[in-house]
Amino acid sequence: MAATQVDFDNFIGRSWDRLDLAERELLYGSYIAREVYTPQTLPLQRIEAIGDSVEACVAKLQERNLDPLNFEFVRLDPPY
Predict the structure, then answer these.
(1) Fewest CB within 10 angstroms: 9, 11, 12, 52, which?
(2) What is the pTM of this model?
(3) Distance between CA atoms of 56 and 51, rounded to whole angstroms?
(4) How many helical (H) and strand (E) elements, i.e. helices and strands, does the chain have?
(5) Among 26-35, 37-46, 68-77, whose mean pLDDT is lowest?
(6) For residue 23, how many C-alpha atoms fall within 13 Å in the half-sphere facing its CB?
(7) What distance in Å separates the CA atoms of residue 18 and residue 40, rounded to the nearest whole number?
(8) CA atoms of 48 and 27, how far apart (whole Å)
(9) What is the dihedral of CA 34, 18, 4, 8, to 10 degrees?
(10) pLDDT (mean) for 48-68
């Protein structure tokens, strides 16, 4: 079930690893965008976009003038 009534903006800039169980349950089924890891960039693996689809994540990244090609998109599994 996608989290359609959640304010995704509250999660931008946060690390997926630092979300608590209740937050992970809210986001279950959503997609997140994280910067692709390379030894040159060493990103912090923060959530940079979140949405109900990859397309929604791409649109959010483009709104912020970020290149979607620099990000990986992950569908969030249940937290347990």
Answers:
(1) 9
(2) 0.80
(3) 5
(4) 2, 3
(5) 37-46
(6) 13
(7) 24
(8) 14
(9) -60
(10) 97
